[in-house]
Amino acid sequence: MLTIGELASYAGVTVRAVRHYHTKGLLPEPERDHSGYRRYDAGAVVELIKIRTLAEAGVPLARVRELLQADEEEFATAVADIDKRLRAEIRERQRHRERIARLAAGDDLALPPEVVEYLDRLRALGVDERIVQVERDGWIPLAARSPERVAEWMTRKREQLADPQFIGFYLILGQALDRTDDDPRLVELADGLSAYITQMADERGEDYVDDTDIEPPLVKLMDTLAFDTVPPARRLMELLRKRGWTGWTKLERVTPERERSGHRRKTLRRGVPGGCGDGCRVPPGDDVGDNPGADAGVGDAGCGCSLRR
């Protein structure tokens, strides 16, 4: 008869493991002798070696008893099922290793692999790291908000990266990062970029230029991030607006009607010279329809409201 220490030694496990298997009900606990010690026979050594072998093979302890009691066919089926689970775990662990490797390389874990690949491509093309940083930080909320659209957006980005003219815009902006707002290269960039955007919008539709469809507060946040990281971007956006496009994160075409409407709204909020005063917001000759809440008629100053009829 064997002591627990001898049993553990023969089976190649620790005494603690033997006690653990007792607790789990995998190895029957023998009766104690008159001295109060457990005594094991040769059969316990065989059972313990089987348990150890299954555990080392990755079989969960919860299924070890099932396998020990299974016939040949049941054993084969159970082993195949366990092997399938282990393969899935290995694939998942490999993905974890890849993400950790990207983190070690400086890429953010919050980004999908295709976005990381896109950022690496920008670096390989010589794009300034500060611009890559803006791209990276902008993609984090976009990918988190609409992960199902990342593949679609990346297809479009890869098409753009295949266009030397598009890459040229990135490189020119990178050269202008440390320049002042009056750097002529920003004007050159705005001219070329606006022509390129207009061409793409005319040929493929404005949705192709930008269809991210994100909420205005997030657009504002991402724009601010870009302007803080790449200050010339703010000046570039001003130049683009004069050339028919507005926005940084979300591009939109600026039509003459929209420009006039935006100017009027801004003017009306300040008050209009030539109006009747007393809160009048309608220029002389304007229709009362532009002054919500006013009655029809003509004010004392010739404006289109009735505040001072």
TrEMBL record:
GO molecular function terms noted in the UniProt entry: DNA binding; DNA-binding transcription factor activity
Chain spans, region Disordered: 256-309
Biased composition (Low complexity): 282-298
InterPro entries found in the cross-reference section: DNA-bd_dom_put_sf, MerR-type_HTH_dom, MerR_fam
Domain of life: Bacteria
Signal peptide: none
Keywords, alphabetical: DNA-binding
HTH merR-type domain sequence ranges: 1-70
Classification via CDD domains: HTH_MerR-like
Pfam families, sorted: MerR_1 (PF13411)
Protein name, as recorded: DNA-binding transcriptional MerR regulator
Organism the protein comes from: Streptomyces griseomycini
